[in-house]
Amino acid sequence: MINRFALIRRTLPVLLCAGLMTAGLAGCVHVNVTMTSDDADSSDTGSAYTETAGSDIDQVPDIMDGGEGAISMEFTASTDYYIVTMPASWYGEVEVEEAEAQTLEEIGAESIVSIYCSAAKENDEGGHIATIVVSEQPPEVLDMIPGEAIGVLTEESSGRTLNVWIEYPSDVQCGPETQETYSALADERGMLAETFEPRFGWRFEPATLEEMMS
Asked: What domain range includes position 24?
């Protein structure tokens, strides 16, 4: 039976563990994909999608009812504190990691999620696109990190506040062969701040560095 505007949800069993990239990053972050089709058979689409998980996003419409139905994809990363929507074009092109507990304790952060261009990382060129930092550190400390403040998380039960910062690389993170791919991904990283939403039990107030310090 054709299900109009069927919402096909599949959570990728992706635990992108540390050790694959920067030393000291050994935690996990949940990466989810939600596909929506206006005329896909939900059972067939779900099966086909599972078989092609990890493929280039340009191939995904081919599995949606022969590619004839309209399709959209939501690509998200979530932690205990927040969820962000990443550009759909990043699907299959990036790797996502969360710092391990020991690293967080050493630098006084609650959560550090880093996103890398897979091609540049595999070429040992760095590949760092952005890092989302959630920390009790004061904004004056976070200001020493290249990037931008995006707001403050407040725990509803206790009133505890955490500052949120997005770090950007301060040096070159790609080579000649990966420059085009890396640049295309990096050009869309502003979406992380635009789609940042708190998880249950937290409130989020957007704020600039100046507003945090006032």
From this structure: 6-213
